């Protein structure tokens, strides 16, 4: 049964080109958010095939026996596997992935990747990587985190964040959570109940 779309948990993206340091930044920011008492969910988009299991493990054997979904549950964690066996390349859909999270246990969902999706985002930019900035073409970028200020940033009146100050970036996120309009913080998506 699918319930009507609901506004469940604030969602904030971290967008940038590969190698810009999104994962490294998130790894440094999350402990600051956690120390404030926030329950943080994270969704990471990858273009690589992943195999988080070993062939000798029961869960691996059961997945390869043909299960379409497998939930591996332990006292410490749950892992949910979805298998797409139709040999069709299937790019994950942000809203579908969001619906799979347990929102009753989260205060915010941070999204790494999905840079072309419509959601509020912090852009990660390093001019030394010689990649273009995203903010001039993406109205959903609400701040830019960088190690050297991009030239065009002043024209756009966006908050600028120092990549080397994860506590300040966490502070920006907490301020955004407390003050952003509801229409900016939430994405509507269907929850399967």
Automatic annotation (TrEMBL):
The organism sits in which domain of life?
A: Bacteria
Recorded GO MF terms: GTP binding
Please give the SUPFAM superfamilies that the UniProt record associates with this protein: P-loop containing nucleoside triphosphate hydrolases
Q: What is this protein called?
A: Molybdopterin-guanine dinucleotide biosynthesis adapter protein
Q: Which residues form the Molybdopterin-guanine dinucleotide biosynthesis protein B (MobB) domain?
A: 11-147
Name the InterPro entries for this protein.
MGD_biosynthesis_adapter, MobB_dom, P-loop_NTPase
Q: Which gene name belongs to this protein? A: mobB
Annotated GO biological process: Mo-molybdopterin cofactor biosynthetic process
